[in-house]
Amino acid sequence: MNGTPRLRSAFPSSPLSAQKDPKHNAPNTRSSGASNRPKPQDPTIPFELVDAPSQRLYVLFFYSLMTLWRIYDYSTLYSDEIDGFWLFTKWIGIDTVFLYALSGLRIPWLEWSSSTFTALLLVHGVINWLLMFRIPLPLFTWLGGLTKVLYDRELAVSERKVKPASILHNASLILGKQIVHILPEGSATLNPHNHPFCVDNSKSSTYLPIQINQTMPITIDLLRVDIETSDQETITISAKELRRMTKQAQKASSLQEHNFPLLLQYPIAKTGIYKLQRVVDESKLEVQRTPSLAVVVECPRGWLRAKPRHKCKGDLSDFRFQVHAAPPVKVSYSKVLNGADQGHATLHLHPENLHKPDVPQRIPSGDKSLTNLEDVSWAKMQTIDIPMNESLGVSGDWLYVIDGISDVFGNVANYSDMRLHDAGRYRSMKSHIEQHFSVHERPSLTTRACDSQQPLKVEKGKSFPLPIDIKSGGPGKLEDGPFTLTYLFVAEAKSHTDETQLIANSHQTTIILGLHDRMDIKEPGLYRLQTVASAYCEGEVLEPSSCLLTNPPEPDLSIASEPITDKCAGNPIGLYVDLNLLGTPLSVSIIPRVKQLHTQIELRPRDTGHYTYEFSRISDAVYEYPISLARKSLVLEQDVKAPPSAYVLDADIPRRACVDEAASLVVLLTGDPPFKLEYELVHGGKRIRGLKEDIYDETFYMTTEPLSSGGRYTLGLTSLTDKSGCKMALQAEVKIDVNLQRPQAAFGSYDGSRWTSALEGQKLNLPLRLQGESPWTVSYHRVEDANKASVQKILRSSNDFIEVTKEGTYELDDVHDSSCPGLIDAAARTFNVSWIPRPSIAVRQGTSINHHKDKYIKDDVCQGDEDATDIVFTGAAPFNYEYEQRYKPVHGSQALAHKRYVSGLRQTAILMETSEPGLYEYKFSKLGDQSYSHDRRRFQPISIQQTVHPRPSGAFAETGRMYKYCQGDSGSELVPLILTGQAPFHLELEIKQHAISKPELITIPHIESHHYNLQLPRRLNSLGTHTVIIRKVRDARGCQGYMDRSPPQVQISVTELPSISPMEEKVDYCVGDRISYTLSGTPPFHVFYNFEDKPRRASVPGTDFTRLAEKPGDFVITAVSDQRSTDVCKAQVQFTKIIHQMPNVRVSKGRVSTVDIHEGGEAEMMFDFGGTPPFHFTYTRSSIPPRKKRPEVLETRNEVSNEYSMTVRASEEGTYEVVSIRDRYCSFSTQKPSGKDGQKRITNV
């Protein structure tokens, strides 16, 4: 049952039935070789769990929920401030995910092609763009057009709605057509599309296509030539197998039985050259064969011969491609360097001495060059070896990948597609088609800060790291070690021996694990670097490449001394010591650093006593650990008698002093008391000498005279005399800094004054001007305080400020800087602070407003009259104020409105609300100005009241009524009026006749009641419509009501009888024509007519009366009436129209008939007509196109028949059909010109 042909209109078969017999699928005929069609993929959700219709129902339900969500987001764009771009992006993402997920579910009938998927995504994107960016669309216009298309109805002469298209385009008027076939000769072709074919381990068989045309073969013989042995064999395809192949071909091409050409697929598994040898059809005759060949070879394949993975920069790649295919061969490969694609390359391989004839896969007729297939060596497979030698000039990861191989016949092994679509198979082949190289940088080696001119000086017996630099030999990064170094060592004692012998005996090798590791050396001598190598690559040794290591001698010291004597008393006071040093550079324990080999030091103690000097240890730059000198006994002894001296304690620290104050300091004295101390005080170029006598303490507290000038003083000790009378010169001195002036404090100013105003309660910073040195301590008080307590504040800036929060006068009391007391400037001792006054509001009283108790009462006004109240402000403009407007209508609930205004003037006017009647109260609740915001605790609200009276009004009891009578009648009617307001009323009316431009005014005074009956004038007897309008009403309060915009009115109509006239004078009409009349009178109209011997009545809202002629018959109009007239006195008329039936034609009795004839034969075509003779008709001959193509009109002919039937003979192939028919009155055509209907009435009888 699965092989049964299905109708085109049938639903597609379910996935389960489609997978039962995969052999029924047509083989693939793409350029890569014919292969079996892939089986359809199973659905993601098995049908055993949820069947296909239920899955489609769930998808529809989910999509409906998404649509409701989308509409909700669209509605929020008008109610909330939401960004439309965000919603657009959101729904684009949701739709994309939904469509991708839907395609991944693989639900039957919901599996789309990539083009359909793209179209759906674009349609959703356009809908989201229109909705989320609120782009207006003419939806109502589209809806009206859609309604017109879906529900196009029109009133017909039978007074029922019909569809005009069904009448105007009646396809049943022309029925039937005849198809004439000329039978062709049959043929068979092997491999009609010249496709290549190949087989291998992964594809064990392929399909050979055999195209048959206009024949049904029962036997086919194929000739196969073996490529390796040239042996020939004949393969016979039986009738049973041919029937199976024919059914598969018909099913695959969706063609009905016996429609040609058909493409049969014959499976083969052997390589070789195939040729059609014989084809026999059902008549036992041989079918014509198109000379052609089909070559089936092994599929091309390739692999790489692996080489070592690690290479050095500058090496050659040195690997090989090997290809097994039918040459010439094209090999494409790609190269990737450090993850970056370096492009693709194609190699064209043509082995030497290869002779390939030009082998067409289809042999032209008469060409016998390849009919003899004894020599088929040109189709044999070969294995080709391709060496690849490329310089690896960049370090990093190199990758060579074979992308594809194609042979001479067009068979392709596409590994790049396999990498994308068949990852499992590609992984199994990856090691054969990819070659990886890791290219390493070569190292470079050099010494640093060491050569024969600058040797390394190292302490004897200690090792030292050899200063070397290992770097990359190129711009790339050098990998970490290990590194292998070889070097030549020349011992210090063998420096002058034969170098050749030294090289042979002193070559040494060491290994360094990392870039930052070093090699330790210990023996003195010359180290010369020879080679360097990393784990994979040999490197280069750069200059400088040698280093000299020496061991300097140990440091040593010898001394000589000379005493120092006092010139006054002759006593020893110290020693001069000469130091003779050995080493570079040297230092001893009592000397910080000595840079010369010979120097002299002075040892002069400050106090009297016996001194012993011992030189105990010595070290230098090389021998950092001190070496003992105890073995040399370098000791010096001396008795010292120190001379008198004086020192100032902390002489390096400058002293500070105030103006007109004395400075004090501490002096330390040595010697035998009593002492006499001389000093001098230097300031401003003047020198003052002084003397202090009878000093017995070694610590003397010295005080200077008052320092009256500011600046720097220098106090120097000049001499000291002790008990021995020996006077010693002194060099001690100390600096004393005296302030130039006394500290001072004063208030600063704001705009030249020491007064300021601010908002009440605001914090103010009062500026201060301070002189002296920071920090300052300032005392001040507020004069208005009862206790006048002072406040102290520490300030650090000379232009600092004090913060106050109260108004009043602030006075400075005292000031101190960091060291001295100061003065207060009497002229700037005080500062005044005041508050800015708060705003207030008041109502300006007058004759129309009075103050009563706690509110203002304003005179009553009429509704709509303008009125205002003046408001006065105090404070700083602009003023911000708010008031509540409370409205109490005559009937109903109260209304409250809040209003805010800003006034730039001190006086403003408040417009009173008078649009609606009732009691209004205006309560001012908030007030603020430029300085102050509203403060409800300090503001006193005020209120204003006013009564608004309603305006009087008038209306007709039956507004809009038409009071009518016929022309010539006499009489009048009473029109009732209703008035509102306070009686008595004064009424003004306007009477206007449409034919006269100037209206007539009527005044009615002293109407004492709210109901009044208006007497219409009897003179309103002219033809036409008269309008009575209420213009103005005034009541007892003096309020007036004007009816200008929509005044109440009634109409008085004096009418005449209506009329009707045809828009065309013709009498004959065709079915589908429109019959139109023009009406005069007052719509709506009633038209009375007879059709099909039945009286009918039609209601016409306008002045045009049109009906569609849907049936043949007599259409007779008998009477008409309008709105003003009545059916009893309607206008009598007599208009007759005759509706004719449309002509029709039947070809082959209205059926589609097919006639097969041979070349030169004829076929008869029968035409039957309906209508009124004579008949003029046009028929065409069209081509018989392939499937899904439009036919082409080949010939058009016109014929005339005076009878109701006609026979025409045809001898040419094509489709014959009538396109137009015309009888005596009407015509119909299926060929519609632009903007025309397919039928028309004939006027020339």
From TrEMBL:
Residues 551-585, 593-642, 857-950 form the Nucleoporin POM152 immunoglobulin-like domain. The lineage of its organism: Eukaryota, Fungi, Dikarya, Ascomycota, Pezizomycotina. It comes from the Eukaryota. Residues 51-136 form the Nucleoporin POM152 N-terminal transmembrane domain. Residues 1058-1138 form the Nucleoporin POM152 ninth Ig-like domain. Residues 442-547, 742-829, 1146-1234 form the Nucleoporin POM152 Ig-like domain. It comes from Ramalina farinacea. InterPro entries: Ig-like_POM152, Ig-like_POM152_1st, Ig-like_POM152_9th, Ig_POM152, Pom152, TMD_POM152. Residues 26-35 have a biased composition (Polar residues). Residues 1-43 are annotated as: Disordered. Signal peptide: none annotated. This is Nucleoporin Pom152. Residues 187-296 form the Nucleoporin POM152 first Ig-like domain. GO terms for molecular function: structural constituent of nuclear pore. GO terms for cellular component: nuclear pore transmembrane ring. One of its GO terms (biological process) is nuclear pore organization.
